[in-house]
Every structure is written in C-alpha cells, then in structure tokens.
Amino acid sequence: MKFLFDDESFSFEALRATGYAAYGGAELGEVLVTCRQIPEGDEEAWSARWAATAARVERIGRDALAAGHRVSAREALLRASNYYRTADFYRRTDPANDAESARLAAASRQTFADAAGLLETPARAVRIPYQGTTLPGYLFLADDSGAARPTVIFHGGYDSTLEEDYFALAAGALRRGYNVLAFDCPGQGTVVREQGLHFRPDWEAVVTPAVDFALALPEVDADRLVLIGMSLGGYLAARAAAFEHRLAACVLYDGVYDFGVEGISRSAAEAHGGLEAAMAQSVSLRWLIRNGLWTFGAPDANGLFKAFEAYTMEGIADRITCPTLVLQADNDQFFRGQPQRVFDALTCPKELIAFREDEGGGEHCHEGAIALFHQRTFDWLDTSLTASAAVAAPAMVGSPA
Hints:
InterPro entries: AB_hydrolase_1 (IPR000073), AB_hydrolase_fold (IPR029058), FrsA_esterase (IPR050261)
Family: Belongs to the AB hydrolase superfamily. FUS2 hydrolase family.
Shape: globular
Low-confidence stretches: 395-401
Number of helices: 16
Strand order of the largest sheet: 1-2-4-3-5-6-7-8
GO molecular function, one term: hydrolase activity
CATH architecture of the largest domain: 3-Layer(aba) Sandwich
Protein name: Alpha/beta fold hydrolase
Distance between the termini: 68 Å
Domain AB hydrolase-1: 152-333
Helix content: 40-55%
Structural class: alpha/beta
CATH superfamily of the largest domain: Alpha/Beta hydrolase fold, catalytic domain
Largest sheet: 8 strands, mixed
C-alpha cells in the first residue's frame, strides 16, 4: 500500500508514523508537509525534516504547558515524541557513536515522559528488575481507582521503543478498561543504547521478571494477565509463553515462526550482486542489516545471520498452553507466511485473524489500520478472558434442604 513515497521502506515508515494519529501521535497536515520535503531514499533528508517538524511541534507543547494549557501541551508533546522517533529511524550506521541519533532518541523519550504525566490518569514510570539491572517501563492505568483490572504486558520488536508502545497498543487498551505494563527489552530503546544489552532468543528470561513485577502490583488482576508482542515480538512473546504459564492469554502481533529461515538472511541470500551491492540499492535491506548489527551485537552480517537461527519456534510452539491469538497481514514484507506456520504448530486454544489489503490492514503489523487491529484484538481478549474466568469459576453448591 504505497503512501507518499515510491520507496517501500519510506512508504511504510511514513504510514507507520501517520497511523498513530488515531491516538494523538501525528497530525496529517504535519506529515504531508514534512514528507513532501524529503527526496526518495534520502535518509539524511528524512532525519533532518522529521527532526525539524518534531522541534517545531515540541515548541507548541512547551509554550502551551507554560501557559497552563495541559491538554494542548499533552497533544503536541505526544506528536513530537513520535516525530523524533521517526527522525532517528534510519540513523543506524553507527548509532552508538552518532550524537544526532542520541539527541533524537533522548528528545523522543523526554517529550513522551512529559506528555505521560499529563494523561488523564498519568502514566507511572517503572523499572523492572532484570539480572542485576533493571528494564525501563511505563505502567498505564485505565483509571486511578486502584481496582485490579485485566492487564497487558506489552513489548515491541526489532526496532521498537518504549514510547511507541503507547500509540501502538496502550492507548487502545486503556479505552477498553485494560491496564498496560509496557517496557523496553534487551535489543530495544534505551536498553541497547545505554545499557548495551542485546536481543536474546530465550525470551522467557526477559518476560518472567516482567510477570513477577506485574503480579506484585495491586492494580493487576492475576487471573487476567496477557502478553502481547509486536513484529519480531511475535516470535519473542510466543517463545516466552511456551515457558511462562501464568499468562491468561497471548497475542502474536504478528506471528513469527522462524526468523532465521524467512527473515533478513533469505533476502540477502537472494540479492543479486552480493550483499553490499544489494544494501547500496535497497533502503530497507540496508536499514535491516545495520539495525540488526547494533541490536543483536553481531560483528558482521554473517554473524548476524547466524544469530537469527536461534529464533525459531520449532519444537517449542506446542508448549504454549494459554489461549493464543495469531495475527496475519496480507502484504507483510517481512514475515509473509510465518503466522500460519505458528498457528499450525500451536496445540493450545487458538485463533488466526487475517487482515486484508482491501480493508486497509494488509501491511506489516497493520500499520495504517490501528483502530481495526485494536478492535479485533481486544474483542477477542474480552471473549477469551471471560470464557477462561467462567471455566475457572467453582461450581455453585446449593444449601442442603
């Protein structure tokens, strides 16, 4: 689904940024005037123009906040956070030593943090204990009643940030009465940038501490705890659910069965003229490999492809016991066919929902159709959690005559 650019990667990332308008993460006019100044495939122009828009919108937010206009400030700061994230997206040649990348990432975090405190129920910044350190997160609460509610543990994937998690899932969950514990994991956001922790295939080691943390919170209903993983997180969440059995449900957004076979390595192997030539010609492939080298801590492309091989659900999928929803996109350019493979391997209660191109949801992770994604996912969760509660409820025993 081409959007504003002919280049597949630019088109997709513009759609991704714009789709968050559903929850205040973008304004269509701002997107249009930004993108029309960016030549096809020009990554430097992409970063510069999105950064300029982000700074302009941040100023709106800061001025509104100084004048006491909390709603206006929140709205502008949320948009600025998304725009700063988008500006940083292609800066993956050497992000650890890229001062502009660090600045953009920090600005995205700070503008979101300031907006999070202005939400109707302010988000709570948390640190989740993890192997001698902590992982940063936010606890988003549906209200301030303190009541125990169904709660989603949510994490992203190959390129996600904690701040994006609000737009991608938390905002829609809050409207439906769900709390959300979102967090950056090894390989993601500040955890890779500032703590130097990279992706790992045994994802239960990451999710189990988050489950422990969530179950200690009074606002969390222990019987209605859900895990959702986005993009590569569709593999990561599945892997975790195979070993972490305190979950009431799991959603693979979207399903990934085998990253090593169907992921970047296949694209590179099929590229004509060798990997370097293919990277020079393809914005998408160039970004995918550079981002992978950073987030996986791989020394080179061969090492990266070797690392991918451990990310598979083969021999593991049948260990998932909780009801599991697998999502699929018609035009997924990264993981086409993978959701069906996961679904077929599951032996737990399961459902597969396909998002079609002709309804606007056919892109990877249903970018541009976030309302449809939330409607189908949370309607399924409502039904699944209600059914699970009914099964778990003890039978009523009548009084003796």
